[in-house]
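TA notes. Do not distribute before section.
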Amino acid sequence: MKKVLLFSLCLIFTLSVYSQDRKNIFQRIRDRYTTIVYDTIYIYQDTTGTYEDNQLAEEEIDEESESRFGNIPVPFDTLDTDDKYHKVVLFDDNTWAFFDITKPILPDTLDSDHWDTDQVHTYRDVDLKNLPDEVDLVLIDSLHGYCIPNKGQIVSEFKYRGRRPHKGVDIDLDLGDPVYAAFDGVVRVALPTRYTGGYGNVLVIRHANGLETYYGHLSKYIVNSGDVVTAGELIGYGGSTGRSTGPHLHFETRYMGQPFDPQRIFDFENGILRCTVFTLRKHYFSINSHYGQSDKESLAASKAPAPKPAAPKAVYHKVRKGDTLGGIARKYHTTVKKLCKLNGIRETKVLQIGQRIKVR
């Protein structure tokens, strides 16, 4: 029994050392011959430098690797672990090695202010008048990139839609199309339709610069509250859940809970970011302020009054056999006296089948 235990321990130690050596060799190969896209390793031919430089580098790696292992193994697949940034790389010679995919560096305090995973909007107590007149937001830098959530056509902009403010943009897509995180961040909200109303299945991601991005009407989301996500990471699939008339992505950008036109940041048509540092001005939070206006036009538009609410439409009841004024009044939660006043009739009026009675 002791011999078996001793043999097992020696075997585990040998495999761990071998795996570490393999990882070191693979690290050097990867630096020159591979690129990582989230959870997949892609091999590519290095065309930088001169032919002689590449030949020297290949010979240097070949000599070291062949002295230990013979021919260089080729990575052909990756396996997930409990940590999505920690993968197992499989080689074509039936060996493996651990590999760490770069995890975004984010402040530890990202979830310390107004962090609520059960409410889509969490800055309800923040008054617009208390926000600064302008703030500079660093959107990307050498460590943090960006991605267009979906490269579709804008079918509804950040404007009034009728008399209702539309506080984001709608991006046309097909059911099941991929949706990507716009920037590095932490998922604050991942909630299904029954908790979000018009948003349907929705994700809200908080970013290090104070922004939050919203992704609504998803058919499915594949991340959870508290997950760290990387710009361009697949987070869900397009759908038509919630208050939606067809598949599209409802995308919002908010600062301290206040929405502004996402097209001020993204050029969705060309799939690029408009700037690396964005100056967010208070008047941008007005639904009348949108991309394409000058600051002077935006400021003037932000002071425009909201559209007056539409007058309620009249409601009529078509008299059927057996209807009475009392029965109609009960059905529409009103009184016979009010019905008579609306229609200019007396309480003793005999109703005719097919007659239209105004009830509101």
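Switch to the second chain here.
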Amino acid sequence: MRKLLVFIILALVTLTISCRKKQVYSDSPSMNISLSTDTIAFDTVFTCVGSSTRTLMIYNKNSENLKINSIRLEKGASSPFSINVDGESGHVFSDKEIYANDSLYIFVKVTINPNDANNPFFVPDRLIFNTNGNEKVVNLIAYGQNAHYIIGRKGIFPDQNGNYTNYYTAITDSVNKDVHWTSEKPYVIYNVALIDSDGTLTIEPGTHVYFHGGAGLWAWSEGQLIVNGTKENPVVFQGDRLEDFYADQPGQWDRIWLMEAREGHGHIINHAIIRNGFIGLQIQRLLKDNLAPTYITNTIIENHTGMGIYANCYNIGASNFVVNNCGNYCVALTGGGEYVFTHGTIANYWNSSTRKTEALFFNNLYNNPTDGNTYVIPFVCEFNNSIIYGNRSDEFGTDFYPIQDTNYIFRNSLICTTRPHNNINFYESCIFNKTPNFVNTSEFNYHLDTLSAAIGIGNPIYSTGALQFDLDGVERGGTPDAGAYQYIEMR
């Protein structure tokens, strides 16, 4: 009986196999594939770093099955490009089947070897398909960019939670105390680039600093950062993904963290653009008294998942600046300190998630990390000729422990707030809850448009010296506007 059952099963299997229709593939030259594009272009790619992946679709729009006789990169194994077909990577493939009215994915990547060029260089290849004697070509285009790579190793310094798990590269040390970064080639940072104690990093005009995911720049206690951008050639800090998709994606890197300065060596940031990180600038007294202020001028800090400027028990002067589009506070001045902000635009129209915080926040409680205690520290702050606005009903908040040496004042500013604002000790010649009428908040364009309530409300006594000119270099004249930009017609 068992033998009979085995015989029946074998007979059924044989019958099934013999009845299965054999696939037939047309070899007619009239049958050919179609492609989703004839060109795949990559944005500028850093040498030695793989690009993102591009997708190519192959279609068989015919009523018969086809075999693609060959798929190959013209430069073969020497090509900087690589392709993946059906889960297999390589440079050449043969006899790839594609059924009638079906499609096939090909994924394309590029990795470019370094050379001696400072400027981006052109890297081409061609992806060639042959089907039944018909040839189709997809042009592959990329630009390579050589760079200085700062790659962190495990360090001895604690992170913000007190854990000794950081990976860093000390870019200044006891031998190289003064380091200059120039614009000849960009700098790409992996993990943390550390400015050590008594060291100074000076970044020259036009330099681009790119951060890999989670990376940052850290000035350790008594280290110094000097950013020497110009209006024509600002210094740019951003993530290292250069594809168009990442141009306005926040949270691509960590932060620029500036600890307490030594006397006569305060941090200076002029004509910088700091975008798409977690925190733009964290300026913090952490281990010892801070002996020099930080100056921020002519700078744009935008599109951070956390905060634009997070200050803690510090002395900061800022002018001609824009801080915008942050998932938390745009500017948080905490732990006490002394702050003078003039011709600033603080504007928060964040829409990537629900924001529950104001654009601007003040606090005088300092949590000392060395002893674990909380102290009330004097807080003194003034905002002159500035704009504080956003898409919430109240964009200004405080959390003060009452002491005599805590005071703030806004002068000649446009403020979005539901707080009582009739106290002249806090608000002098200000306008409240009138639209600033920015040109385009979704594109981070915070120039003033026609009918802006900020036009002409500034006081010229705060627009002297370098502040006679706005962030674009436009002269403010005798009737300055509030904010970083002076309104001009037909901008």
